[in-house]
Amino acid sequence: MELGGLGKQYKDGEVIIKQGDTGNCMYVIQAGEVEVIKDNEGKEVRLALRKEGDFFGEMALFSREVRSATIRALGDAKILTVDRKNLLKSIQKDPSLAFRIIETLSKRIRDLSEEIAPYKADK
Known about the structure:
The protein is an alpha+beta fold. It contains three helices and six strands; from the N terminus they run βββββαβαα. The protein has helices spanning 59-62, 84-93, 96-122, and strands spanning 8-10, 15-17, 25-40, 43-51, 55-56, 70-83. Strands 1, 2, 3, 4, 5 and 6 form a six-stranded antiparallel sheet that branches. A hairpin with a 2-residue loop joins strand 3 (25-40) and strand 4. The radius of gyration is 15 Å and the shape is globular. It starts with 7 loop residues before the first strand and ends with a helix.
């Protein structure tokens, strides 16, 4: 996702967004990796890894709910913050960007559905 601008550097283990906080932007990983972590009754559960070129936090652009997970840098990472206004400008310049975002979100939903399917079968 090419959105220009300079990203912010995060050090290994540094929290980028925290579960339960409110947000109004998404993030694009320009360099490095992050982990997606959910607090489950005081225990950390790693949900996913995201790498350079991936994005996260996008739900904040579409709903006013709190962050559903914590995102933490794995090693040094450079992260670009993208607010709704800048995302819409970027989509106007390159409409295929919207398709690529929807494609990624669809894949994440499919992966999650496959992950929870065994639990549904047990009930």
